[in-house]
What does this fold into?
Amino acid sequence: MTTPEWNNSGHGGYGGQYDPAYGYPGYAPDQHLDQHYPPEQTAAAYPPPSYGYETYQAQPAPAEQPYPLPQPAPEPEPAPAPAPTLRTGSPIIPPGIQPALLTAVLAALTAAGAALGSPALAVAAVLLQAVTAAGWFRLNGMWPARQGIALAFLAGLAADVGLLAAPADQAPSVILGALGVWILLILVQQMRHQGSADERLSSLTATAASTALTVLAAGYLAIDGKAGSHPVVVGAVAVAVATVARALPLPSAVSVVVALLAAAGSGVATDRLTGMGTTSAVLIAVAAGVCALIGLRVASYDFPSRFVHFTAGVALPLTAAAPVVYVLGRALGS
It folds into this structure.
């Protein structure tokens, strides 16, 4: 085996003589670089050293616009949603002077009908019963309620016919009988109701209450005694006077007192026309005035509408007074 010969001259062991001008034999540094690395690549491969300083190059200033560019119009902000309106204040709104005047007209018709006789009084009672039936349903938020209004109104008509046909002493039996029969019809009618249990209960109570009020309004036809129809005249006039006085623009407590005093004064005045006695006339008038104020209070509850004021607000004062006028008229006139 042949081993290569090495030059022990201490110049790297290339096996040749070192020439100071050319280096080792067969080695040309410049020629080597020219062949393998062109000057531009050599410069790119070996960039000059950097010492952490960067050359600042000034950026050209942006060209100014001779005219300002048009800016897009800002979009309009959406309008805020309206805040929900809340009802504030007292939920009691009296019907006012116009319904009070209508009540006075209806009361005057009742008093005139009582003076003329039972047929004329029956006409006034029918008008009162029609307004009572419609107003009570609307007061309870039920409209339209044609079947309920029709049932209540027909119950009142049945009571009127029974009172005109039966003897005077049978009036309570006629009124109770009419109520019993028509309440039974109402129960049958409500069994066909397709609503929920709460709706059926509300409809049943409203229809039953309207029927009861409409039948009780026929109590003006049931009065008969020594005083005749005089209690009806006294009570109707007292209702008219008290209702109008309550509608005057006065403080609430003051108007109540004024209404009751006006009702008592109307009793004194009607006593001179009827001759039934001052004490009896004043008692009937004051009692009728109290019932009229109660009817107005019921018709004024819970933000009622204008329709309620012109139906329930007109009829309830006179309807509420009918049972009291009947009871006191029978007791004081017998």
Q: What stands out?
A: The chain has a mean pLDDT of 80. The two ends are 166 Å apart (CA to CA). Residues 252-274 form the longest helix (23 residues). Residues 206 and 324 are 22 Å apart (CA to CA).
